[in-house]
Amino acid sequence: MRTLANIFWLGTKELRSVTHDVVLLALVAYSFSLAIISQAQSSSQEVHNASIAVVDEDHSELSRRIIRAFLPPYFKPAQPIAERDIVPLMNAGTYTFVIDIPPHFERDVLGKRLPTIQLNVDATAMVQAGIGASYAQQIIDTEVNDFLARAEPTAPARVDLAIRVAYNPNITTAWFISVMGIINNVTMLAIILAGAAIVREREHGTMDHLLVMPLTPFEIAMSKVWANGLVIIIAVGLSLYLVVRAILAVPITGSIPLFLVGTAIYLFFATSIGIFLGTVARSMPQLGLLFMLVFLPMNMLSGSNTPLESMPPWLARFMEVSPSTHFVSFAQSILYRGAGIGVVWPHFLATALIGSLFFGLALWRFRSVTAQAM
Question: Which of 372, 373, 193, 207 is CA-nearest to residue 284?
Fold first, then answer.
């Protein structure tokens, strides 16, 4: 009971220290609010409300079908313009795409003369231009093929492929980026907060005060784990409810409380890494450099940016010993697919066991440093 009391009161001291650090508080608030919104809205990999105009020189049924096929949310309704206005309007940035349907287009299609449609693209809108050009080609091909199928009898296809996209029907990038942004920021802030707590104690001279008190290194380390972990869990919960659900309107299929339980288990590992780095670094700049060396490989290979299946087999097997990989896996299962505890408990267990090993390593290092200081 005395150990628990010491851990609790030391943790409250750590919480007061965090609340008085305006820079860290601002970093936490920004990382789980504006940073998530910015990532979700600026990393879009699909066409959305692209402006498009059409020069219809054919005025046929087929050309009208093509014009009507460009619909939201990918494209704004196509606007008719004259051929002489193509260059001035694109130079002014009024339209990203301009389609020019030549005269006698329908007649040439029915006569199998292979006519050509001109698609003008404003490549300064790089993402819209690259993906939108292929979208426009698919839309035009589909309308022409449907028109020919009604005009000429054709044999039915031997195989009909029915595509059903699960969990993200429109393949909206923001649905994925927002949640993965939160997951990446959990790792980042857990390491920074825990490491900064150790460095701050050394720089302010309060570490010497702690060492002369009847406290063990285990109690000091655990107080920093639960205090900094609590700050991050509260920030994650608010971000999921207020930013992801309310502002970005991303549907969360699974249980957020279950995800927060898994996050608390993972934070045991991430804060241990921060404590270990805090015992190695002698100043905040050194901590920042060590953080980059640890966080970037762990984040890039965890599966949040690149699926494990696309990695070399030996690297994928190696990353299975990292709790960050299990964290990404159960986070996607819970939040995207609505998985329950019966599905994700192996990842919870693996994260807890590996996190315990890392905490033991961090505690050993912390005891060595404190023994040298005494």
Answer: 193
The more confidently predicted of residues 325 and 219 is 325
Whole-model pTM: value is 0.76
Mean pLDDT of the residues in the chain: 85
Asked whether the beta carbons of 256 and 346 are under 8 A apart, the reply is: no
Instruction: With beta carbons less than 8 A apart as the criterion, state whether 244 and 252 touch.
Output: yes
* Top-confidence residue, 96 or 153: 96
Residue 289 burial by CB count (10 A; 0-12/13-18/19+): exposed, middle or buried?
exposed
Identify the burial level of 339 via C-beta atoms within 10 angstroms of its C-beta, where 0-12 means exposed, 13-18 middle and 19 or more buried. Answer: buried
| SS3 call for 68 | helix
Q: Rounded to an integer, what distance in angstroms lies between the CA atom of residue 254 and that of residue 80?
A: 46
- Residue ranges of alpha helices (H) inside 205-283 are 206-212, 217-238, 256-280
How many alpha carbons lie under 13 Å from residue 133 in its C-beta half-sphere?
A: 12
Pick the closest to residue 323 from 339, 337, 303 (CA basis). 303
Residues paired with 56 in a beta bridge: 101
Q: Please report the beta strands in the chain, taking only residues with DSSP state E, as ranges in sequence order.
A: 52-56, 79-80, 97-101, 118-121
- Per DSSP, the three-state class of 169 is coil
pLDDT band at 153 (very low <50, low <70, confident <90, very high): low
Task: Give the CATH superfamily of 52-151.
Answer: abc type-2 transporter like domain (3.40.1710.10)
The token pair that represents 118 in the structure block? 């001109």
What's the pLDDT tens digit per position in 3-38? 888 888 888 888 888 788 788 888 889 999 998 988
| 349: β partners | none
- Mean pLDDT to the nearest integer, 214-228: 81
Number of Cα atoms under 13 Å in the Cβ half of residue 143: 17
| Nearest of 207, 202, 363 to residue 271 by alpha carbon | 363
CA quadruple 222, 225, 228, 233: dihedral positive or negative? negative
| pLDDT confidence band for 154 (50 / 70 / 90) | low
